[in-house]
Amino acid sequence: MRHEKLLMPVKTIKLLCMIADSLAREITQRITRGDLRPGQRLPETRLARQLDCSRNSLREAFRFLVNDGLVTHIPNRGVFVRTLTAEAISEIYTYRRIVECAAVAESDLDSIDLSHLDTIITEARRAAEHDDWHVVGSLNAQVHLEFVALAGVDRLVEDIRPVIAQARIAFLSLAQRDIHEPFISQNAEIIDLLREKRRDDAVVALRKLLDIAQQHVLDRLDS
What we know:
By secondary structure, the protein is mainly α. It has two domains: 10-81, Winged helix-like DNA-binding domain superfamily/Winged helix DNA-binding domain (Arc Repressor Mutant, subunit A, Orthogonal Bundle), CATH 1.10.10; 86-222, GntR ligand-binding domain-like (Four Helix Bundle (Hemerythrin (Met), subunit A)). Helices cover 74% and strands 4% of the residues. Strand 1 (71-74) and strand 2 (78-81) form a beta hairpin. Helix 5 packs antiparallel against helix 10 (199-222), helix 6 runs antiparallel to helix 7 and helix 6 packs antiparallel against helix 9.
């Protein structure tokens, strides 16, 4: 496959990479929504049919997802949604604390518009009223992507996107009100602190939220 790529026109290679990237994003969304569960096998033929793509394009997308830490490839068995260990979870949340807190600390509070964050919180509360906790979890994750975006560095958002998706994998089995609902109000509190230009307090609140989230997931592993 590698030698075949070297013989392809550059435009063709770029197109194939764009298709694979689009497929990888769609599969990532399915994972974060809870449509695909930790440890679940991703059947190549059926998934290619569902996504209306070639198996070669899907395999390239799988390669992207392996690099993003969202799936694992087991020779002679196939591709599976990743199951996270305690060590992996701790690493994910250490990374998130470093990047998310730094992004908020570097945000320009005089120029940012927080209305889109308010909209996400409203949608999360609406989903909570219907006990749709997977949707709540996905929306909470979206809030944290937006926190990183406040720094105005697109590369940071792209880098942390798969890491937040990994955290969603860890949360997929935690579909209870007492787990997810408090994060809605905690995220709303951080947004209010940003609106009041209390940057340092927002960073402290964000760090505390991530500490709590990590502990929830680790407690599930131990139970």
